[in-house]
Fold:
Amino acid sequence: MARRMLVAGNWKMHGTAADLDAIGEIAMGAGDGCDVALCLPATLIERAARRHADFAIGGQDVHQADKGAHTGCISAAMLLDAGATLTIVGHSERRQAQGESDADVRGKAEAALAAGLDVILCVGESDAIREAGQAVSTVSAQLDASIPGSIGDPTDFSIAYEPIWAIGTGKIPSIDDIHEMHAALRGRLIAAYGEAGGAVRILYGGSVKASNAAEIFSVDDVDGALVGGASLKAADFLPIVEAARKS
Ligand code: PEP
Structure:
């Protein structure tokens, strides 16, 4: 099944008003031929979305509740109100530092999709799990426990396979290991959603840069990338977008 590539940047806790021009450079340079998005700190979403109405701006997390006593949290309606069209859920930095469980991640994904946000749901193994030869079984189980019961339009929902040990380290799995994992996750998505599971995009994330993007994008069932460090500057990010467009 043909799937349109998606390259999404995750700015994490980086960016102030001084970076709005860098966001503009990326938004203007994104072009056609693949989907491109930037998931920004909450404080920048509205300003970036107002300046670049045709460019996809996202959040990095969302709360599962509509509203209430959740100090410091942001609901799906608030993200939409600020101009976001998508959100990341279940990033390993949140699973680890905020203790988010698979059930939490599922709730966040369901709330975001129900509100009309596209979702990028992250899964990935630690280096100890990879070393123990349990990466595929562990990440498959994590996916099964984290994905929503139903997803509506499958093109609104993406998975990001992000090995924890590859995030921000410059290390990436072998091409064979990426292929094995993405094929396994595709199988789980089809088991969960039938034919629609074939239309869900599976992104790879973890130390993607201009020099390795084309090879990663050549792998079956790699439908784009979630990019951290290399998404902060147009000069680093746009060549990755270009590699996706050409793949
Ligand atoms: C991420 O944190 O989602 C990520 C992929 O980071 P990096 O590209 O910096 O490894």
Observations:
- The radius of gyration is 17 Å.
- The longest helix spans residues 175-193.
- The chain is about 40% helix and 15% strand.
